Each structure stands twice: as structure tokens, then as C-alpha cells.
What we know:
Elements (H helix, E strand, L loop, with lengths): L2 E2 L5 E2 L1 E5 L28 H12 L5 E5 L9 H9 L6 E6 L4 H10 L4 E5 L5 H8 L4 H14 L4 E7 L5 H14 L2 E6 L17 H11 L3 E3 L10 E5 L5 E5 L12 E4 L4 E3 L8 E2 L1 H4 L4 H13 L19 H4 L2
Parallel strand pairs: 3-4, 3-12, 4-5, 5-6, 6-7, 7-8, 8-11
Antiparallel strand pairs: 1-2, 9-10, 10-11, 12-13, 13-14
Amino acid sequence: MNLVDSFGRLHDNLRISVTDRCNIRCFYCMPEAGVKFQPHDQILRFEEIERFVRVAVTLGVRKVRVTGGEPLVRKDLPVLIRKLAAIEGVQDLALTTNGVLLGEQARALYDAGLRRINVHLDTLDRERFKQITRRDDLAKVLEAIEICRELGYGPIKINAVAVKNLVEADIVPLARFGRERGIEIRYIEFMPLDAQNLWDRGRVLLAEDIIAMLEREIGPLEEIAGGDPRAPATEYRFADGIGRVGFIASVSRPFCLNCNRIRLTADGKLRYCLFAIEETDVRSILRGGSDEDLRAAIRANVSAKWLGHEINSTQFVPPPRPMYSIGG
């Protein structure tokens, strides 16, 4: 039985956060200090995550993405990747990382079966990187991307959060960086998920403005037809045939009506939306219930899914968890 909600949306995409900890401090995600993390005994063990995925696959889940926090700060992550890659029914396994630790772990992750990787990188400018992340690790991230290219990872994508009056100077250089290396750049509209309540719609650099910048500085863009209509990114190719870019326009072009994703937090809470107010505790089931109990909990969570997040309405209520605690 597949996971279909009351609006007819099929759910086959699972995002798993393996930790709420991170080794950088992007201002739109985490405060510089005073962050409260989950106790270690509340974090799901690898065996529990593996069990959850095995059960989810019986309900039609086919795509799995490992996230954080920063997933590479989780000890022995290649062990989990190997477990997930071996599950029959998982057709697509991917990882999202900030890239700081990726260079030293890329080979082990590749050998464990990982091929698809997204690197979070907002800028190629060292000073702006330090301003955004409060760390001086740009060189490590760039080196890691090259290591992944040499190892044969594919596709490699770069995720860049678009904050107005901050990253305008980075939009075109990132696209050119991707064009030169066969890497798709994905621009993500700044969303209200920060831990310090900094978000304001006026700080969102909209997808339409980014497209205009790219076409003015590089050349015409053509929307790619025939893509997965449930994917969060709208993808374009440059008309000269060199390079692709994507736009996750959660603010200006919400894609809730096509959403196919569920999320498992590091502490074992199942969420039907990034912005969900409610969540289902599955850790207690994983530690004391049956697989059928788990299936029932997953079905109930998806059945309760709302129509959408309402960012653009007065009804919008920010989730009680910040992004690092939910999972990217």
C-alpha cells in the first residue's frame, strides 16, 4: 500500500536527519552560540534508521536523502550509507552536506555506495563565506568538490541560499563555476526557518530576479521540460547548451500541491512537511514497537498532511523547530 495523503499526493521520498549538530554557523540557520542540541541517547541509532527505511520501502518509499545538521559530523556515517544502499527498493540514495568534512570522507562514502551529493555553498568569496558561516572553511569545501568530481560522483549539485542584499554578487560566479565543472547550481529562496527569527519576505531574493541576473550576464535560459513534476526545483539549461541551474522557490512559487516528501528528524520524529507544527514520535516505536506499529504511524502521519505551508498568507505559523533541528 503506497503512501497517499487526503489530497491524492503520493509520497516516495524520505529525508533523514542523522544529527542536529553542525560544524558551521550559517546566520540564517543557527545562532553563533548557545545552541541546545538533543542528548545523544535521544538520537536514532543506525540500526533504528535502517529499520525505519526498510519499513518505509514496503510503503512505497524509493528515494532517500541523508541530511543534518551536518551529517558528516555523525561518527562512522559510511556505515549507515552502506546499510541504506543495500536495502532492496531504495532506488535513489543521496547526501546533503556543507562540504567542510567531505574531502576526507568522500572516498569512504563512495565505497559505501553513495553517488549523488549536494553541497551547500552560498558564495565563492572567502570573506562572504566567513560572514555567512562564521567559519573560514571555503578552501576545504572547494577542495572537496574537486575530490568528488575525481572520484566519479554524479550528479553533484550545489545548493545556494538566496538572501537579498547579501548574495547578489555571488549569483553569476556560482553559475559560471557550475558551467565550467558540469555541476548544477540550485538557488534556494531564503525561508522562515532560522533560529533567530531573522526572516522577512523583503530579505528573499526571488527566483525571477535571479533568472533575470543570469540571463543578463550569461545568456538565455530554457526551462527543461519532462522533469519530475514533484521535484522541488524547477530546472533550466542555458540556451548555449552549457550548464544547468535550478530554483527552489518555496516563497514565490510554492510547490506544496506536488510534494512527495516526508522527513525523519535525528531524534526520531516523523514530519509530513518542513514547516509542520505537528510531528509523530516514531523513536518510541523503533525502541519498543512492531514493524506494523511503525507502518501504521507512517500512514497516519501522511494521512494528516496539510494542503500547504501558507508562507504567503497571514495564517502562516513558523515551525517550533529551526532548520538544523528539522533536517535540511
